[in-house]
Design goal:
The structure is a homodimer. Chain A contains 26 helices and 28 strands. Chains A, B: Its main location: mitochondrion.
Chain lengths: ~800, ~800
């Protein structure tokens, strides 16, 4: 595949005031206002300081907007990128033109390129005029409001002064605003009959704090062309020198300064006012702060480091691949208009509404969609909270109560959980207490870990080989490291069980639990992150080991009941929990992060309680759901109010979150169904390329990251201790010369620094890969809409960074 | 004040399919489509089953839409409510008409009334045609999209087939959608040149799953009126019987059935799939579930109980005053378009973006606005989390660490907190551990309360008198109950201190703490809800007592350092904490819930750490901020990463929440500044009516609920044990015949049931007051935009309910 163009850096320079002119409708006078603004700007600027760009123009040459500008504002540089002669919408004109239809990227790159040229030769103003109304389609068919969004140019909106124009102007404004455009000025013709100017001035002042400027209408068309030109010329002279147009230019000038001043000062102000999460702030200086002007798709637009110099000609923004998926939340891309509109609909229909003993459609439909998507005989009910940590606390309250009642433990007999070493379930005290003592929690004053945490075999690609690595301490019990032909072979738990690989795992787990119980330990739930332990250090666990843990616990109620107690009756419900309630923390691993709706499927088993957040809303707003079986639910059922699950947050099941989640799930499931990730699966992951025994669909694992990239990087054995990729996650374990590992190692910093330094100014401005490390692990996480092109570009950066 | 009309129940009947017709622009053929839809519907309906309503019409009678309907669809009943002859926008026409301009309410009430008449006489269809475009202003000047939103009629959008019409149609759709309208169908003329129909069919199918129907254009205008009429009549006959119009009617018919089927089944489905927060679900039946179709301002639209019968003529929805402010979150009204657009802007500009070591404008501006609003020398930094409970866990981690380091406590020496009995800080385990054992937490498996909780004097209006009530056990130490002339006099803590009222309080607190410390107890923070203990039972605490607690602790570092340790150096920072860090949980009490930006002002003191949520986002999405002093922040500063505050949620400082919060704070502060609550303050609360000594502004307390209502209800001493009102909160403590109090009392259920039963069908449909009780306390909570009229109506219901 040929190297794709680098991502687009939004055009912003200190010296160049670039604005995009949108119209509330067609025929509202966009070109007249463009001409006026160009002339008024030129009058304040020495030399040929003003430029005009028409990216797409339709209609005969003689009526083209660039000609109009040439005629009436001859000192303004002007250019049209794509001109179509037929006076219809660009999407039709382009189709009929018999020329290659420019893609959105092509158009944006050329716009940026023209802006960069303007900046480089010292122009002060650039006006970019769109065609038709805000949602008129561009050549590709995408509407302009969506197409131009990545440029993030601030906007002058030309309002409609005709009958109905109030409505057109407000709706056009809203369509822009909900795509994150900063509409800095509304301009329209003043006219006495409909008085749209009066209404709109008041409306925008009251509701949006946006100034509205009114300008007299141009003269009526004269009988001769010559007269017409003369009248228009006179009109432009008068109006461009008039107060109103001048005020607009002054305002745009001021807003440009303010935007830049704000970007310049944000890092310093942030360090003064913000208390950052998970951050030793004394180690940070303003240059360490990622100043985010906007985001689109997989990319942030951030303040470029060079821009701190006073150079007027450096591009201020650069594209930054969001390599941590914004703390693992992103799936459907930043600023996704579908999710925006879903959020806006729910906000407009409900706001937030009381959920205790109440129901609204978004919550009910989301619950149905989640339960259906999980397709588990053990998950019947949905409890809502706000984030993974609270969702885990809910799961814990559910699981512990169920176990306590089944086994008749007294209140004083505190139950612990069974988990894995290095697990992480959130930052609230209850969630923290589910993890073993570690750097995350040992200094936290009320932390008090309650449970037993197993060590386990992990999966890594090392020097090109896919290996199950057994920790040294466990080799006697579990055997030596073992190599496999592929990741899919490791994940083929059924074949491996047929070969008896699980027998030693199960024996070890059973014996360990027996020993603990003999020591007087009591347990109330199992809680694990299926397959990947995220925050604990991106460990890919041998799925067979987790499956063995679940199976042993379920087969061993004798271990968990009171010593000497008779065996409880076999529950009539075949989906009732046995042994201990099994909680799966799928906050990070579920909902397609690892390529599947539920990460429980990798273990080929079902949880009794399952927690889902992060990707649940596609990466927009906080929401968490804790799913549980009817059997668990019934543990809280009685005639006593105090037996209820006494948990609930104010914004429980807030409609905005539910509607966005519903939209996200639908979109993700549709992508899955439509084969949208076939390009990724064919990057060496397809099961046909793995061993014949692993042909069952449950064993098919794949990643957004190409298999040859993973294997090649793993061969850099002087720097890389191992690597894995699954779904959209890539985790590179770096060798730490000092021998220290875990969260507080600095080993991965070098690679991170290389990626963050990024590419210097290129065709579309500079770009880099923003990423986070977890101690000695550098991970990259794509979204579910990340393109093959982006992955190819980043793969190249990784190869460069590791000289692979 | 004359009794205002009751709130509007959204018009929905089983038998009547009512749709609102909006136009993407003026002159797009709304009336032609109305006529077509009326005729097509009539063709499927026996008798005069179809009605047409034009709420507002402008232009000469001869061109009026109702005439057009009469002419071409003579079997359709039709009506115009307000007709203005001048062909301009209704807001101008109404002004020029020399008649009373109808208010939005008047218009909506009349629309509902007409729909009710249609339902009562068995009509099957009603089409309500708007004027101009979606945002064309109504007579009052409010744009129609905002004005008609409370009706919640589903919509047929007439698209624009002209050049530019694609943009107009999509923008109009978006403006409707973001106000919660269900646009069920888009219709427009088919036309070959611009092919808008083709584009829009595909666009709406792909993006919104909304069908688009195309109909041939009407014949060109003929030279004679007669010919014209004949041609149009023929056109209507052909098109209304054509497949496309028929498909629209079938679709609208189906969607109506689906909406009702969904409302009918939601309660049952909810009880099967949802696990409700804080609810003993076994005590619920479907009729206990509040089925919410939509919400607007202070009112839900809920499924009315009678509608479960199969009667075709009962109105299905009723207006329900959101009397719990949706778990205390609501301030600026449900479905507030300002908040919707703020949310949409942030979603469209950022989505969610990584906040650790990052910054974006909404987060920074919100931080600045909060710190400025708090106006506290002790609050310098903002930490973000998702809800009050997590915000408290953050505060706790901050406070305990600061105390531990200052006093040199070892890790094993667990520190408790100092609080008040009945306090409540959230449902996560760490937050629960800040509260004494109670019905909320004692059955929760990992709950382990850590601290000492003081009992305290409360404030109540009893039998018309404002009284500080001292619990019997404390009378020896604190003295007897005391009556005051007004609530403001009780809140005048400065005057009361001048009189020495605080001396016994301080002595009692100091002695209690001395005793506890002698017993070996160690403390790390004070945590209190200023003035009102919410979830713990709506107790209004004597502010002087809380102030005394803060003052004693700050003066008593000797009590909290290790026994025998030397006094620490006086910190150079005058705003450094002393004694213990003071945490104010303002989640419920702050941000104007009690009438002021911060509830700390009632205590005339400043916290070291302060937690804010609920009203922070005006009632739209979850967000919490924990504010702290620089001095506290510095406790976490070192060269060691593990000393950092290791807390942070995935959606930390999500831009949607921050932007909405910024908009909310601005709006609330503006209302405060503009005197928007003067009507409430003048309901007997103004300080001039209280004692002269309490004239200082800090003592001015007031409520949305009239003082005479509070005092009158308090005189129902056979049922009411006391009552208080402050800000938007009213709390009625009901006498429990069984003697039990607290969360699990059922005493307030009777009054609640009366309010929820509500009014039967009235002028604008039925309405009720939805409210929650906390044991023996029934509380009502208004929003910050609740009107005097709503309060007057609800006050009447309360008087009826208590026969006061």
């Amino acid at each position: 595949m040929p190297q794709p163009p680098p991502p687009l850096a939004s055009p912003l320079w200190r010296s160049l005031r670039a604005y995009q002119i949108f119209g509330a409708n067609t025929e509202v006078g966009k070109t007249v206002f463009s001409t006026l603004l160009c002339k008024a700007a030129a009058a304040r600027t020495t030399g040929r300081g003003v430029a005009f760009l028409k990216p797409v123009s339709t209609g005969p040459d003689s009526e083209a907007d660039d000609r109009h500008i040439s005629k009436f504002a001859s000192d303004v540089s002007n250019k049209t990128l794509f001109q179509y002669k037929i006076p219809v919408s660009p999407h039709i004109a382009a189709k009929l033109s018999n020329t290659t239809i420019p893609s959105n990227d092509t158009l944006l790159f050329q716009c940026r390129d023209y802006a960069a040229q303007c900046a480089n030769i010292g122009r002060k103003w650039l006006f970019v005029e769109t065609a038709g109304g805000v949602h008129s389609p561009g050549p590709s068919g995408t509407t302009q409001a969506d197409m131009y969004a990545p440029l993030r140019l601030p906007v002058v909106l030309v309002g409609d002064s005709r009958l109905g124009g109030i409505s057109q102007t407000i709706s056009a404004f809203e369509s822009l605003r909900m795509r994150g455009y900063d509409v800095e000025s509304v301009v329209l013709f003043k006219e006495d009959r409909y008085q749209n100017f009066d209404y709109l001035s008041e409306y925008f002042a009251e509701h949006h704090d946006v100034p509205v400027a009114g300008v007299n209408e141009p003269p009526e068309r004269k009988s001769s062309l010559e007269e017409d030109v003369r009248a228009m010329a006179q009109y432009y002279e008068e109006q461009s020198q008039g107060k109103h147009t001048g005020d607009v230019i002054s305002h745009l000038d001021k807003r440009h300064e303010q935007r830049i001043a704000s970007l310049d000062s944000m890092a310093t102000q942030a360090l003064e006012k913000i208390w950052y999460p998970f951050t030793q702030q004394s180690l940070l200086t303003p240059k360490d702060i990622n100043v985010i002007d906007s985001a689109h798709g997989d990319y942030f637009q951030t303040l470029a480091p060079s821009s701190s110099s006073s150079s007027q000609n450096d591009s201020l923004l650069r594209a930054s691949f969001d390599g941590s998926a914004s703390w693992w939340t992103q799936g459907l891309g930043h600023a996704n208009p579908r999710l925006t509109l879903a959020a806006a609909y729910a906000a407009g229909r409900y706001g937030h509404v009381m959920f205790a003993s109440g129901i609204h459609r978004p919550a009910l439909e989301l619950s149905s969609a989640l339960l259906k998507g999980m397709n588990s005989p053990r998950l019947d009910r949905v409890f809502f909270s706000d984030n993974g940590s609270t969702g885990i606390e809910v799961a814990l309250k559910m699981g512990l109560r169920a176990a306590k009642l089944r086994y008749g433990w007294a209140k004083e007999e505190k139950l612990g959980i069974v988990g894995l070493k290095g697990s992480y379930h959130g930052d609230t005290i209850g969630a923290m207490d589910c993890s073993e003592p570690s750097g995350y929690n040992e200094k936290v004053e009320w932390y008090d870990g309650k449970g037993h945490w197993f060590d386990y075999p992990t999966v890594l690609c090392i020097d090109g080989k896919w290996r199950v690595n057994v920790p040294e301490e466990l080799r006697q019990a579990l055997g030596e490291d073992a190599d496999f032909s592929s990741l899919s072979e490791i994940f083929d738990v059924q074949s491996r069980e047929q070969k008896g690989h699980h027998v030693r795992y199960e024996a070890f787990i059973r014996e360990s639990l027996e020993r603990l119980v003999k020591q007087g330990r009591r347990f109330g739930s199992v809680i694990i992150e299926p397959v990947v332990l995220g925050a604990g250090g991106m460990a890919l666990v041998d799925p067979l080991f987790q499956r063995a843990l679940v199976n042993v616990v379920r087969k061993s109620p004798d271990l968990f009941r009171k010593s000497g107690a008779a065996a409880e009756e076999t529950p009539s419900d075949p989906n009732a929990w046995t042994g201990l309630p099994i909680i799966f923390d799928e906050v990070f691993t579920g909902l397609y992060r690892l390529g599947r709706f539920t990460s429980s499927s990798f273990l080929n088993t079902y949880a009794d309680i399952s927690v889902h957040a992060k990707l649940l809303t596609g990466g927009l707003v906080p929401l968490c759901t804790t799913l549980a079986s009817e059997n668990i639910f019934q543990s809280f059922s009685s005639q006593d109010k105090t037996d209820a699950l006494l948990h609930g947050h104010s914004y429980t099941a807030h409609p905005v979150g539910c509607q966005v989640a519903l939209e996200s799930l639908n979109d993700l499931q549709k992508m899955d169904h439509d084969g949208s990730w076939n390009w990724a699966k064919s990057q060496g992951w397809k099961s046909s390329e793995t061993s014949p025994t692993s042909s069952q669909s449950s064993a098919n694992v794949w990643s957004t990251w190409p298999r040859d990239l993973v294997e090649d990087l793993s061969r850099q054995t002087d720097r890389v201790s191992g690597i894995w990729a699954l779904g959209s996650v890539l985790a590179i374990h770096i060798k730490d010369a000092s021998g220290s590992t875990g969260y507080f190692s600095n080993a991965a910093q070098d690679l991170r620094d290389t990626l963050i330094a990024g590419d210097s100014e290129g065709a579309n401005g500079s770009w880099n890969v923003h990423c986070r490390v977890l101690g000695n692990v550098l991970y990259l996480m794509a979204g579910q809409k990340t393109t093959e092109e982006s992955i190819a570009q980043i793969s190249l950066e990784l190869r460069k960074g590791l000289q692979a």
